[in-house]
Design a protein that fits this description.
15 strands, alpha/beta, 396 residues
Length: 396
């Protein structure tokens, strides 16, 4: 396939249509957003076919939408994402939200949206898109007004005591897309539940993450590994926060694995145990002096892992977008044909629900490790490597 060329038609910085009231001009970040780098880590891209599309896009591509969907490619998708464009990446650091609309030669459209991790997490992002699409459809009754809490919920520290993790790297890495099939996930889930011997509810995303970590750890040949995961605080705080609470309301924590954790059920068991421990111990007392101390200790641990100061430990990060209704987002053109969120940061894992069942995963590893990872036999039995999006779709 010929390399896709995207030409910029217009670039605009949007500001409020009316002046912001003086008392709302400054938003004080909470403790949880204090040490987050002010960069846009990733984007969600919504693809819409030509039916009923009359919007003027800000970029144009001579490429056909079906060419993109037939063979999704990381380098090609970068052209559709505003936060990776070399001409704008520096000027956009101060922006809370970035949006790029791309019009294809066939009339199809891609909408890529990226939010600053400093002020919003995945739940905030989804709430914003839901309200935006509701307004596009004039369904004003479902528009949720954002509830901004910030420092009023968890006041920030006077100074950040832990070292700030370095920005993620993309050097010497390879990114691959895998789609894990629903029947195979179900079968593996049953085997894992039997091996764990406990009446625990295991989510599909946990199964997929478990097999990815097993295969990635085997490929890296590291003695130990770590997974950086998050807990959404909204439903777990006392009292719970409403779903429309906007902010970086996630608590980061590390799950540590040793050389004996070589089976999927062992990895899943440790993930669930640490998740339960964080929810029961750290989240419930997060506003207390002990809670602040635990957050500081967790920050130091994560910084050590990401700075490479913990030797012989391969550290992975996971962005789990499963369960969010991204496939329902209708800007007035109908529901998207495909929703994806590629990332090319080293040792990153991004999970999304597939529109046709199963889970889509974007995985980035060291070049040599990916060469081993993608040929793992157990992985091959559960997932397809970069299948066409058009297999289950006939409108294009």
């Amino acid at each position: 396939m010929e390399k896709m060329k995207v030409s910029v038609v217009s670039r605009t910085t949007l500001k409020p249509s009316i002046p912001t009231p003086h008392h709302l001009r400054k938003f004080n970040l909470s403790l949880l957003g204090q040490d987050v780098l002010a960069i846009h880590y990733g984007s969600v891209i919504f693809f819409y076919p030509a039916d009923n599309i009359e919007s003027i896009a800000s970029t144009e591509s001579m490429c056909q939408l079906k060419d993109v969907l037939a063979n999704p490619d990381t380098e090609l998708l970068k052209e559709l994402v505003p936060s990776t464009h070399p001409n704008t990446i520096r000027s956009t650091l101060a922006c809370i939200l970035l949006v790029q609309l791309t019009s294809f030669a066939c009339g199809g459209t891609a909408v890529a949206i990226s939010v600053s991790q400093k002020v919003a997490d995945a739940s905030s992002f989804c709430t914003f898109i839901q309200s935006w699409t509701a307004m596009c459809g004039r369904d004003y009754g479902t528009v949720e007004l954002p509830k901004l809490v910030g420092a009023s919920l968890l006041p920030p520290l006077d100074m950040v005591t832990a070292s700030v993790p370095p920005p993620p790297t993309t050097r010497n890495c390879t990114t691959k897309r895998f789609v894990f099939h629903e029947p195979q996930i179900k079968n593996l889930k049953a085997r894992v539940a039997t091996a764990m011997g406990q009446q625990q509810h295991v989510r599909d995303a946990e199964i997929v993450l478990g097999i990815i970590l097993r295969c990635a750890s085997a490929a890296s040949q590291s003695k130990s590994s770590a997974l950086l995961n998050v807990v959404n605080l909204r439903k777990r705080m006392v009292p719970p926060l409403p779903g429309n609470t906007i902010g970086n309301l996630i608590l980061k924590y590390a799950v540590m694995f040793d050389e004996n954790d070589v089976e999927v059920h062992q990895l899943v068991s440790k993930m669930k145990a640490e998740f339960t421990n964080v929810c029961m111990d750290k989240v419930r007392g997060i506003k207390s002096k002990k809670g602040y101390k635990q957050i500081g200790e967790s920050r130091k641990q994560i910084a050590r892992l990401l700075n490479g100061k913990s030797r012989d430990i391969n550290t992975y990060t996971c962005t789990n977008l499963c369960g969010y209704p991204f496939h329902e987002m209708d800007f007035g053109w109908g529901k998207p044909i495909w929703v994806t969120s590629p990332s090319d940061f080293k040792n990153s894992i991004v999970l999304l629900d597939s529109k046709w069942g199963g889970i889509e995963a974007w995985i980035t590893l060291d070049h040599l490790e990916m060469a081993i990872f993608e040929h793992d036999k157990e992985l091959g039995a559960l997932a397809s490597l970069n299948p066409s999006v058009l297999i289950n779709y006939s409108r294009i």
